[in-house]
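Entry type: protein chain
Record version: 2
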Amino acid sequence: MNRRIELTAVIEKEDNMYISLCPELDIASQGETQDEAKLNLVEAIELFYESASESEISKRLQNDLQITRVTIHV
């Protein structure tokens, strides 16, 4: 069965590379460009889903996730 799952990708520049993170699964990857980092993260997540058991997926998947911005005074 082929199902579609939507997850979060956080991509940030670190030195001369881009780091990508899926916080719901705590899976990370990297690339030389933002697009490459995103594609590499997608590949890493797909490989995880192909090889992990249902219990491992359930254990790692964090659905209670909120991404927001905060304002501070300094």
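Comment: The longest strand covers residues 17-22.
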